[in-house]
Amino acid sequence: MECKSLEEVRANIDRIDDNIIKLIGERTDYVRQAAKFKTNTDGVKAPDRVEAVIRKVRGSAEKYGADADMVESLYREMISRFVDMETREFEKGKAL
Fold first, then answer.
1. How far is residue 52 CA from its own chain's centroid?
2. Is a pLDDT exceeding 80 seen at residue 95?
3. pLDDT of the residue at 50
4. In this structure, is the dihedral angle defined by the CA atoms of residues 45, 46, 49 and 55, taken in order, positive or negative?
5. Is residue 49 within 8 Å of 58, Cβ to Cβ?
6. What pLDDT score was predicted for residue 92?
7. How do residues 33-70 score in pLDDT, each as one tens digit?
């Protein structure tokens, strides 16, 4: 879609940001659920799974015309934060 003004560009960016945040919230719920199925913290860290996700999102980035290096960097940071959160969830579940 070609925009006719900076305001239109910004409105579309805001709409996209809202969708991204909504999806991060949804992903958060699934990450919390995943902690219930893990048997140890190594399962939470799951480095093989992390690399599989990175390969997948790099492929998606290329498919959709996004910068694959930027997408990888964003995902590595996001996954790192989710692993921290899932580790806390796992430890809470273990304490019950």
1. 13
2. no
3. 97
4. positive
5. no
6. 86
7. 998 899 999 999 999 999 999 999 999 999 999 999 99
C-alpha 72/C-alpha 57 separation (Å) is: 7
**What is the domain partition of the chain in residue ranges?**
6-95
Question: What CATH architecture applies to the domain 6-95?
Answer: Up-down Bundle (1.20)
What is the per-residue pLDDT for 81?
A: 97
Measured CA to CA in angstroms, residue 53 lies from 15, 22, 79 at distances of 26, 20, 9
Which of 90, 74, 86 shows the shortest CA–CA distance to 28?
A: 86
Short-list 46, 66, 49, 50, CA closest to 58: 66
Supply the Cα-derived Rg of the chain in whole angstroms.
17
CB 41 within 8 A of CB 87: yes
Q: What secondary structure does DSSP assign to 38-61, as a single string?
A: -SSHHHHH-HHHHHHHHHHHHHHH
- Between the two ends of the chain, the Cα-to-Cα distance in Å is 52
